[in-house]
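ingest -> fold -> write
write: protein_1
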Amino acid sequence: NSEFLANLANLVHLDLSGNQLTGRNVPVHLFEHPRMRVLDLHDNNLVGTLPVLSNENSAALYDNVLDGSIPRTIRNLKALTHLDLTGNELTGMIPADIGDMTNLTYIFLSENNFAQGNVPNFFVSLPQLRELSLAKTNLVGTIPEWIDALGKLVLLDLSRNRLDGTIPSDVWNLRNLQYLLLQRNRLSGTISDSFSRLPDLKMLLLDNNNLAGNLQSACASVKIDTFVADCGGADAPVTCPCCTLCCSPGDNCNDDLLYGNLDPVWELNYTRSSYSFSPLILDEN
């Protein structure tokens, strides 16, 4: 219906998530309301290209069937703090224009079919960023050394890509980090004991890589709620007495999709109250 909600000139918050909305022709005016601040259409079956947004602070469009590339006009959303496009069919390069959106605190782009490339360096221009999820987005190359410039990061998810090289020491300088997901890449080298310096680390997923190391000393001084590494079997490359799950080569260990998306809820002022990665991994703030 092209007139659906068209006459609500003062519409500020719109939540149509978790319905079974389908179709390619979503009324354009839903994205153009001049006062709109929160738009939540996640968990539907919306298809077609990503619509041009207008004045939103928060846009949650994850778990739809949106395709095409992210338009460069996204750079005009200077007030946007929350962008979630996880679980669509987006293609092309992740546009560098996102680096101009300096108010972003949360950006989830996981599980899309973006063109193969390195971790985009424009993220270094987003000093307010607290949550960055790029899982399963065809990333290659190494984890960048500039990552510690994002000093406010609480969640960093680079899992399910083809990243190689070592885990740079810069990662362990992220003092606010609580959730680090690096599983199912091609990372190699020795796991540093430096993870034990992160005081609030609650989740560390390093399994299904080519990492090695004896973590007995570091384990003596930490308690991580969810810690997974390749420490299973007689010839395990990792010794990890504080791991909560040890994976072995060739098994299906830790193969669930663990994205931890925020479900924007009006009653909580659209902020985090918990991190839910699966029914078994729920962390209340």
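write: protein_2
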Amino acid sequence: MSHYQSNIWCALLVLCSHSYSCVEGGNKELWSSGHHLKSCREVAFSHDGEKLFSISKDKSVHIMDVEGGKLVKRISKAHSDPINSMLLIDENLFATGDDSGTLKVWDLRRGTAFMEMKQHEEYISGMAIDHDKKILLTTSGDGTMGVFNIKRRRFDLLSEFQNGDLTSVAIMKRGKKVACGSSEGMIYLFNWDGFGATSDRFAVKAESVDSIIPITDSILCAASTDGVIRAINLLPNRVIGSVGQHVGEPIEQIAKSYDGHFLASCAHDQKVKFWDISSLSAITVSDYRRRKKKGGNLKSLSKKAFGGGDDFFSGLIEETEIKKPEEKEEEEEDSDSGSD
């Protein structure tokens, strides 16, 4: 799923482009594409918003015109294995990672990959690039994070192995921290320039953290296989509450609108849902937390989220990190909170 600065979203499987509206009945399909021979796994808008990149299980990369969905360029055999992840770096460079752990970095001016490395033993699940477009980070099903210097075209290191798959990656805290989601429901934190070992870890109490996206320097949204989208503050580590839900359906991916007001999610229920996240940027979290009793409900950040008044299932989900006003406060400082 991807979004650019007009109200256009693109969803996966058979690639479709939709415009959305806050007015009832205002959503419409703009075009659909069947260029890929197998399922489409990820899409991304070019930096100027005029092109749409897509990757597929058929091992190809397609570049299409956003306005009409016309195929502009096809790289038929971009990888030897199905492509699983993609990251647009700038107007000329993009990176792809496949099911076998191979990373490629492409230059559109040459039409070829100028960097190809296989350091992971399993699929590459996610990628992120620093502000200087120099250090590329990858997460993998082998439980490691990879660090690559694309300016010098070299591999730097792999992190230590973590429990379960590392599913996603985001750069936080003004570039000082890196957060990785995992299939074990943990978020692992790394210090920048300290990629070998984690500096902290945080149990989200979710079945799996499959997709994460930064909202502010300290807050990210995390989507899980339990169908819940959680807003999470890092350092101090807190689950702030539930942003939205696909009841009982694993969420595949989340994406933020260009203005930061909305979050879109797609899940196994074949629905794309939109959530108002405009209030998250105003949230501040204390360095100290109140300990709460077991069995407390996850705080709802909207009516449609878990715990909202309209949610029949609101009493069925539990979180241990959310505080309640009536509980006695304990001055318990979070790990690593003083390091930033």
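write: annotation protein_2
Confidence is low (pLDDT under 50) at residues 308-333.
Residues 20 and 224 are 24 Å apart (CA to CA).
pipeline exit 0
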